[in-house]
């Protein structure tokens, strides 16, 4: 019996409220196994990455999944296996990257410039997840049985 590969729905259009926040540059939704489910960029950006293309969004999705797994290992070590990672924040010279759980099997990532109100961005990420989290979820992959 051969397995089937299904295309994940593109949920990039749902990220528009985030990319309209001042200072937000890019947003991406990723499955827990690192697949891009959707992405968006703020309008009129300049600089190193003026628009997040599919290739960059797929790389960011893979990095997000790796960071989530790594941080989950750290949290489990410190607080026990039942403690889940809710949100991550990385600060760099160029800005911030925030990741948050976005429903079952999915994460939401947002990249900002240094001028962004990170508290507002994190709060709006939670609002978006609460409002449309079911659409941001990714079901676990089905196991392929071998004959």
From TrEMBL:
Enumerate the spans annotated as Roadblock/LAMTOR2 domain. Answer: 12-112
**SMART domains xrefs:** Robl_LC7
Q: Which PANTHER family match?
A: SERINE PROTEASE INHIBITOR RV3364C (PTHR36222:SF1)
This one is known as: Roadblock/LC7 domain protein
- Provenance organism: Streptomyces himastatinicus ATCC 53653
């Amino acid at each position: 019996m051969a397995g089937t590969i299904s295309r994940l729905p593109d949920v990039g259009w749902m990220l528009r409220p985030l990319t309209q926040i001042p200072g937000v540059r890019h947003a991406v939704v990723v499955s827990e196994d690192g697949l891009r489910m959707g992405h968006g960029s703020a309008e009129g950006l300049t600089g190193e990455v003026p628009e997040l293309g599919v290739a960059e969004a797929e790389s960011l999705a893979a990095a997000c999944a790796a960071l989530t797994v790594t941080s989950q290992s750290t949290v489990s070590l410190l607080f026990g296996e039942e403690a889940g990672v809710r949100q991550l924040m990385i600060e760099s010279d160029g800005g911030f990257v925030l990741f948050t759980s976005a429903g079952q099997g999915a994460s939401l990532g947002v990249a900002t410039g240094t001028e962004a109100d990170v508290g507002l961005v994190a709060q709006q990420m939670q609002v978006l997840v609460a409002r449309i989290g079911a659409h941001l979820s990714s079901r676990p992959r089905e196991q392929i049985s071998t004959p």
